[in-house]
Structure formats: structure tokens, C-alpha cells
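Hi R.,

As promised, here are both runs. First protein below:
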Amino acid sequence: MVALLATLLAYPVLYAVRLAFTDPLTGHFPSLVNYAQLGRDALFWRAVRNNALLPLASVVVELVVGLALALFLSRRFPGRAALRALVVIPFALPEIVVLTIMRYIFVRRGYANAALAAVGWPALDWLTPGSALAWITVVLVDAWHVTPVMFLILLAALAGIPAEIGEAAQLDGAGPLARFRYMTLPLLRPALLAAVLLRGVDALRIFATPLVLTGVEGVPVLSSYAYHQWSDYGNDAAAAAAALVLALASVALSVPLLRLREAA
């Protein structure tokens, strides 16, 4: 196991760190020339901004929708099992399948504009590179695909809350909103923090959704920017530098969230 981890994890990470601090022209190490290049690239700063805002927006949507679905589907009613299975389907689909379907929906002559035309509304350019609508579309597509993760975590947490607590609060005169605010939310806090930690760190790695829907420069993020440097320009050092920025951002986010999780 140690040999496997060293081969597949430690060596590539250390090699990438060395590459990020190596001048690709002179081979000099250590050097900040790659980061100087990133600092002069407007596309890199767009990727940094998107990498901060896209995961935040996506996790907020997933948290709100996942919690609403978990609260609704934790109740007993006919057809509940079928609805639960339906909610989980998006996450069960392979990402490339989801994104292929979404391209058919949101391209200029796709199903979304066909639906708008059917009600007399003008067509929209959902995936125009750099547009606010493309940014929103990427957020919603990413949230649609991954909200089931949030839903399952919160549904399991709700199932662990004893029904007697809610019944006692109801007997004491607490209404639905009061029970949710003062009973359900505090008891869900560990699960909420765990879900936000899991999705927050994972959302920073967003790659395929903006790349497939809008292209490299449409809604750039650090992972797609690194891929762009490597595949289109053959600049391995700049790609490693961008990847290292993303890795450090992931660590910087996960440490405070882990502390909050432990405190809960």
C-alpha cells in the first residue's frame, strides 16, 4: 500500500510541485517565472474568479434544494420510494452522459429554446462564452447533477432524528417553522457541515461541466485553465503552477471547514 500510494500520489504531487517552480526555458529551480506568467494572463484571473464563485453558487443551490427535497421526502406518503429514486437518478448518470444531454438542451437550436419558442418567447444564447447566462447555466447544470449527494446526506441525518422530539415540540405548541428553526436545523448542523465540506472541496475541482458546455474560454476555471495550458500550448510548467494554486485553495478551504465539523 505504501508503494502504491508513493507511486500514484506522492511522486506525481512532488513532481508537479517541482515543475511548477521550474523555469521551462532554462530549467532553473526554484523559479517564480511560471507564476509571473500566470499573473499576466487575464484568462487565469477569470479562472480564479470563477473557481471562487462557481463552487459557492453551486453549493448554495445544492444545499437549499437538497434540504428542501430531504424534508419533503422524509415524510410518509404514497409513491415516496419512487420519488426518492427519481431524485437520485441525475447523480447515477455518468458525467459525460449528463453533459451531452445538457448540450442538446442548451445549444442555440436545442430543446430549451424550442420550449421557449412554443410559448412565444425569443431564443436565448445559453452558452455564449463569457456571458452571465452561460455562467448561470453551468451552475445549474452542475447543481442538478450533484444535488442528490446533498439530498442523501441530509435525508440520512433526518432519519436519525427521533420522532419523539418533534412530537414533544408540537405538543408544546411549536409550529412547523419553529420546529424547523429551533429543532431540525440545530440537530442537522453536523450533517450540514459534512455535506458542505464534502461538496465544497469537490466543487473546487469542477472541470468537465464548464469545459464541455462553454469551451476553454467560455467559463474558465483553474482545472480547465491548467488543461488548456497543457493540451493547447504544451506548457507543462504553467499547467502545474495553475494546478498547485487549485490544490492550495482546496486545502485553505477544507481546514476551516474541518474545524467547524469537529466543533459541531
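And here is the second one, sequence first, then its C-alpha cells:
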Amino acid sequence: MRLFVAIHPDAATQAWLAESQRRLRKELQRFAHQLRWTDPENIHVTLAFLGEMPENAPVEQALLACRCSPTELTVGGLGVFPNPHRPNVVWTGVADESGNLARLQSEIAAAMAGFVEPERRR
């Protein structure tokens, strides 16, 4: 089973992202064959990619120990992978001035240390 740990945006942010996606689809029609559009209900912030995991791996139990204080995230800015001449994925940036999100990612990485290779990128 291929797993990742993520958080979903609140309803207002999800609506903003859905509208942004609608406008982008119009503007990027020439790349329609290259881009994959995510259903707005599935838009999320990935905190950790775990990869292939056996179904019986105690991932949920390990993650239950991870905690995060309520945090306000700022969403904005757009980019593409792998580059603007060949876009496959459109992304938006997320900022957290409190540092809580980075601390949560560190806790998740520590909790998953026995299951997965640590991710090298921030």
C-alpha cells in the first residue's frame, strides 16, 4: 500500500484553491495533455511520503503520538513541476511563521524512522 501523511485545508482555503484551479485550467489549456488536475476535495499538504508499506505496518499507532499546536498556514504562490516548459504538476506554496508545521514534520519523521527511509528534502 502506497502511503503519505497529509493535512487537508479548511473549507475556505479549499474553495480558494478550487477557484484558482478553475482559472488555471483555462489559462493552461495548451498544456492540457500534460497536466493532471486533482479533484479540489483531494487537495492537501503533504507532510511525509512513506511510500510502499505493508498493510500490517503499525503506522497509525506510531503517528498517534505526533502532536501539533493549532497553526495558521498561509497559502499562496504557484509553481510547476518539473519546469514551466513541461509542466506536469501545479503546486501552491504553504508558509507557517510559527514553525509548528516543521516541528510536526520532524515528529512524523522520527515516528516513521523504523518504517521508512528518511526523506532528504525539506
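A quick note on the second one: The longest helix spans residues 11-27. Let me know what you think.

Best,
J.
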